[in-house]
Amino acid sequence: MAKKVYEDLIDRVNTSKTVTPGNKAGLLDFLENEHPGDVLFTKWSMPQIIAKGKGSRVWDVDGKEYIDCITGMSCMNIGHGDKRIAETMYNQYVNELDNWFDFPTPERIRLVNRLIAAAPGDFRKRARLALSGSDAVENAVRIARYHTKKTQIVCFYGGYHGQNTATMGFTGAGSMHRWYNTVTSADHGIERFPYAYCYRCPYDKNPESCNMHCVKVIDDLMCSGQTSMGNYNAGYTNVAAMLVEPCQSSAGYIVPPIEFLQALRKLADKHGFLLIFDEVQTGMGRTGKLFACEHSGVAPDILIIGKALGAGVPMAAIVGRAELFEDTAPGFICSTYAGNALGCAVGNKVLDIIEEDGMLETCTTTGEYLEGVLKSFMAEHPLMGDYSRRGLFFGIEMVRDRTTKEPAAKETMELVDNLRDAGLLAQLNGYYGNRISFIPPINIKPADVDEIFAILDAETGKIEEKYGLRKALAGASV
After folding, report:
1. What is the pLDDT of residues 63-76, one digit of tens each?
2. Residues facing residue 274 across a β-bridge
3. Do the Cβ atoms of 79 and 435 come closer than 8 Å?
4. pTM recorded for the entire structure
5. What are 115-155's pLDDT values in tens digits?
């Protein structure tokens, strides 16, 4: 009988010559007692058991120190261990209120008003608090469908919007969809199109002159009357909303042209559907603005916020046009912990810290410095085919050949493992498993960037030498 996957993973841990004792014990305990289908073994061949964090550093159970370029997948934008968050939590729990079901509290009312004021859009807004990005996505889509009385949701290949039953269909990860057999989660009134991933344009267009061809394709199909999306020329649409990340996150930190969101806004207005921006990872300052869509000057009809809003406490929210919420009555949405007093107090303090510490300005300044470092790194390393950056939202793509753009998946997996061993934690992902996302706290300085790239430079060079890529691509243009 073939071994189960978790049994193979146990063998991998037991036979590893590099895993340290504390990490080995923790991984074996996890694999023996918890559900083995979590994401940790997809990011490294051998993940670490992290025990401590402070600022932009974390330490594993055996005391090894790492530069944290994951930050809980952008949950810890303000860094680890900020005493102001701890003081807020203590005061709220001990001196104020811990939780009181899904009811209004002073901190909840304050946070809702602040998110409404911060969200882009010159129109009256309402908000709904939630516990996670998936939770918020589900709420946003429910409200959009209920308000419009339409069925279809347009989303994009490469998008990640959660993987519970309600949201899995919007997520474009085939490896995740396989666990939903035999009833597919994608068959829920969903239409999917290619994202503006210009380095690998599926339409083989030049991004400098394509005039947002990827959006025109959607428009043409919606006007054709030959899809379930409706028929523009006959005056109707079946689309409730379009769900899109302003920059794709789990697909590899891919940044589209500024014009992409602008074109989607025009498309939504033309066809009369709602535009929903999923800013679970791009929001809360990651790109140098509180929300990434601000770079394009585009306001969505519904904005989804999560992760960094709670600084380690589960918190999320949707903010949208007020009228979208006003069709509903009490009982439409209910959640025991959504809007809990402790999480709301933390969310308010996170907004305070971002403002008081000038984190958006720091993120922008460090991001500008990072741009030059990325260009220099690419000039020195033929393994790097491309990079994307907006603020401190950045990812790099590894290829075996810059002309053919052949993905260097094996090399990238090995590189990410080697970076871990050298004390740098970064995330493996990408359409072809050949991108690395770097997600440090947004308050890092240029000196921190230099330290990150000193490790990346050394380890990338070793991979290039091992696989003969430096010699083979020495003449390749940057």
Report:
1. 999 999 999 999 99
2. 241
3. no
4. 0.94
5. 999 999 999 999 999 999 999 999 999 999 999 999 999 99
Q: Quote the CA–CA distance of 394 and 329 in Å, as a whole number.
A: 42
Q: Which two tokens stand for residue 76?
A: 């810890």
Task: Specify which residues 436 forms β-bridges with.
Answer: 396, 428
Q: Whole-angstrom Cα distance, residue 74 to residue 282? A: 8
CA dist 162 → 54, 135, 172, 278 (Å): 28, 8, 10, 11
Residues facing 396 on adjacent strands: 387, 436
196 contact partners, CB below 8 Å, separation of at least 6: 212, 214, 215, 256, 257, 260
Beta 152-156 vs 190-193: how paired, if at all?
parallel
